């Protein structure tokens, strides 16, 4: 049965390939220069089987797909109470780069939008870490999820920092509310470095499979985070992972998921599967157009909808 999976994946890719809807992210030159035709999909199982088709070893920046994993690291490093005190778990219903802070406390609605992710980055690692140590902790943690050492795309970092006005504004607001306690610029820089980690669709599938395998990387056998952390992360992915398209996603796909602006998309189902797709053209919500189509198909063909 398993040997038919690569053919199934190749057929699914062939069906969505002609769809050229959507736009590349163009707020920095590096993303605007991506090859829009790239297309890949990978399934990884909790017992370490990996099946892929298309562009599964092409590197691109992880971007917002880093958010659930950095949230996992913050929960693991600081525990639930201190993290929940600073970042909520409610869908914002707004775009990922909206300010979206609770009006009385300034607490970001959730860790998947930028406000929450910038805060989450500041909570990874231990309290006294300097910004470089924190980034190192995050890159090491993302690498443990992937099961191989990941590196940062420095050119993307430089460009992102030049266009980070909105994230800087959000971070200064967070500092004003006392949600951030460190230099806002340094935290945004760290968050951008986290988003600029290079991954392939294969890496993303392994990261998703580590969530599906309840915190243990299926290939390395390393326990990256504890089970309660995984449950928290998957819960927030299912309500907030697709931003203001979260409701459509929940009804049509029904898999905890996270998208990134470079075209990556992951989904994870505990005990079953980690899925990743890569296709750079995005819809109005910032989610990969062909990635969403592929997930709709996978969910329907394999009965993966959790509801
Ligand atoms: O914060 C930003 O704007 C980007 N570096 C990451 C945003 C992102 O991936 C949004 N997801 N679709």
Radius of gyration: 18 Å
CATH class placement of the largest domain:
Alpha Beta
Number of helices: 13
* Shape, per Cα inertia axes: globular
CATH fold field value of the largest domain: Beta-lactamase
Q: Which class of secondary structure composition applies to the elements?
A: alpha+beta
- Structurally, the number of domains stands at 2
Fraction of residues in β-strands: 5-15%
**Topology as a string of helices (H) and strands (E):** HHEEEHHHHHHHEHHHEEEH
What can be said about the biggest beta sheet? Answer: 5 strands, antiparallel
Q: Which stretches are poorly predicted, pLDDT < 50 over at least 5 residues?
A: none
First-to-last CA distance = 25 Å
Named at the architecture level, the CATH assignment of the largest domain is 3-Layer(aba) Sandwich
Ligand inventory: 6-diazenyl-5-OXO-L-norleucine
Helix content: 40-55%
Within CATH, the superfamily of the largest domain carries the name DD-peptidase/beta-lactamase superfamily
Mean pLDDT: 96
Keywords: Acetylation, Hydrolase
GO molecular function: glutaminase activity
Binding site for substrate: 64, 114, 160, 167, 191, 243, 261
EC number: 3.5.1.2
């Amino acid at each position: 049965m398993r040997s038919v999976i690569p053919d199934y994946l190749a057929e699914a890719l062939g069906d969505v390939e002609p769809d050229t809807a959507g736009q590349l992210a163009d707020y920095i030159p590096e993303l605007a220069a991506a090859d829009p035709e790239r297309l890949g999909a990978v399934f990884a199982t909790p017992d370490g089987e990996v099946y892929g088709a298309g562009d599964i070893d092409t590197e691109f920046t992880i971007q917002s797909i880093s958010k659930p994993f950095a949230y996992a690291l913050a929960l693991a490093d600081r525990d639930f109470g201190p993290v929940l005190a600073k970042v909520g778990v409610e869908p914002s219903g707004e775009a990922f780069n909206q300010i979206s802070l609770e009006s009385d406390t300034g607490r970001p609605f959730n860790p998947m939008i930028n406000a929450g992710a910038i805060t989450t980055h500041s909570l990874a690692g231990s309290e006294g870490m300097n910004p470089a140590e924190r980034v190192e902790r995050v890159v090491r943690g993302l690498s443990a999820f992937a099961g191989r050492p990941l590196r940062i795309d420095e050119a993307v970092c430089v460009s992102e920092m030049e266009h980070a006005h909105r994230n800087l504004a959000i971070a200064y607001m967070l500092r004003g509310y006392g949600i951030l306690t460190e230099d806002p610029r340094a935290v945004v820089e760290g968050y951008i470095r986290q988003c600029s980690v290079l991954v392939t669709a294969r890496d993303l599938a392994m990261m998703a499979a580590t969530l599906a395998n309840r915190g243990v990387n299926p290939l390395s056998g390393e326990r990256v985070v504890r089970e309660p952390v995984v449950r928290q992360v998957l819960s927030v992915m299912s309500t907030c992972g697709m931003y203001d398209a979260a409701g459509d996603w929940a009804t049509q796909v029904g898999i905890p998921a996270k998208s990134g602006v470079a075209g990556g998309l992951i989904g994870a189902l505990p005990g079953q599967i980690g899925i990743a797709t890569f296709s750079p053209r995005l819809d109005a919500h910032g989610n990969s157009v062909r990635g969403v189509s592929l997930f709709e198909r996978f969910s329907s063909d394999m009965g993966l909808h959790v509801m």
